[in-house]
Predict the 3D structure of the following.
Amino acid sequence: EVQLVESGGGLVQPGGSLRLSCEASGFTFNTYWMSWVRQAPGKGLEGVANIKHDGGERNYVESVKGRFSISRDNAKNSVYLQMNSLRAEDTAVYYCARGKGLIDYWGLGTLVTVSS
Amino acid sequence: DIQMTQSPSTLSAFVGDRVTITCRASQNISPWLAWYQQKPGKAPKLLIYKVSSLESGVPSRFSGSGSGTEFTLTISSLQPDDFATYYCQQYDTFPYTFGQGTKLEIK
């Protein structure tokens, strides 16, 4: 059974940093692209970043370029999202997701709240 | 970025009704169009990919169609479990954008 378990969310002040983690199980992790998708409270879905199975390609939505960094450790079946210079508009549930664009499995999500 | 526009934003229907949700892309994305279902407090669930391919385990009352820039999701006979929010998504060009969602409510 495919499982994606996120951790690392919480309350952070504007300008602060947070690192999200996602541990995957139930599939051959090092053969899949992985993504982070977020959903602001009461709003729709937004793809934030994705990373190729070997880490050799990474893509970011324009609004997070230069502030967020996606990485992975295939030995630990984990993908990460380092978020710096956080803004109020980054407040959202962040989902770890399997896939490059098409997402076939989603984690339960972790809430990030940026507020003073 | 490719803009995805869904209509309607809200849809009220009875159990047993046939409903259709429309998704329009700002440029040709065929066939890279998916539909997801999301219930409150839950992660989205993939229903349909590549315009009309049904994800494993998804009931056959769900179907997708369309081409180019116009796509539809049809539920042939609404069941109580189907009341949720539905999102289309293009995965042709990064960033892979979603529609704003269609909330399907019980009438």
The first strand of chain A starts at residue 3 and ends at 7. The interface with chain B takes residues 44-47, 50, 59, 61-62, 95, 100-104, 106-109 of chain A (CB under 8 Å).
